[in-house]
Amino acid sequence: MRVVLMGPPGAGKGTQAVVVSERLGVPHVSTGDIFRANVAGGTPLGLEAKRYMDAGDYVPDSVTNAMVRDRLGQPDAAVGFLLDGYPRTVAQVDELAAMLAEHGAALDHVVELTVDRDELVARLVKRATEQGRSDDSEDVIRRRQEVFAEQTAPLTALYEAQGLLVRVDGMGPVAEVTARVLAALGA
User: Fold this and answer.
1) Does 144 qualify as catalytic in the annotation?
2) 126 has catalytic annotation
3) Is 143 part of the annotated catalytic residue set?
């Protein structure tokens, strides 16, 4: 099964990705993990990404796409994957579709975790306090939520038009959300 997991910061994507990928028997492919592995490994793509990251710049799609292409080309992803953190732009949606088409494959589902915005803010404020992240004020967190919604709306609309999008209520205990995600995937 080839799945993309989407949702705003604080929706529980990371938690769900680990549990759901294990239940589906496919690797959890996180762009954050891919970036860290390439940078730590000193790969050519990692060195290029590090240059942008060190300058505080956005890593260009060409580098991100190449890293994702490399990761999805590894043997464990041949049976499927759960992608977390990619795609983030319409261009990346198209690139992912092209990558998969080269192997005669396509996405099976795009799961969007939905959570009440006030609940998201409360979760993130609590996390910031627990982790001592004083720069994560409620105003900053609310702005990040707005930016996420603006940036992902075109992606969810596109996936919905393709009949791939399933929205899953991300509120409640982890096990209940997992059960809803698995049910939405028919797993």
Assistant:
1) yes
2) no
3) no
Cis peptide before 87 (omega within 30 of 0): yes
pLDDT digits (tens, 9 = 90+) for 6-57: 998 889 998 999 999 999 999 999 988 898 899 999 999 999 988 888 887 8
Is the full-model pTM beyond 0.70? yes
| CA R_g for the chain | 17
Residue 114 Cα distances to 13, 35, 37, 173, 180, angstroms: 10, 26, 29, 14, 12
Q: 50 an active-site residue?
A: no
Which one of 69, 88, 123, 167 is the catalytic residue? 88
CATH architecture of the domain with range 2-184: 3-Layer(aba) Sandwich (3.40)
Give residue for tokens 């609309």. 157
User: Does residue 88 have an active-site annotation?
Assistant: yes
Q: What are the backbone dihedrals phi and psi of residue 29, each rounded to the nearest 5 degrees, phi first?
A: -110, 105
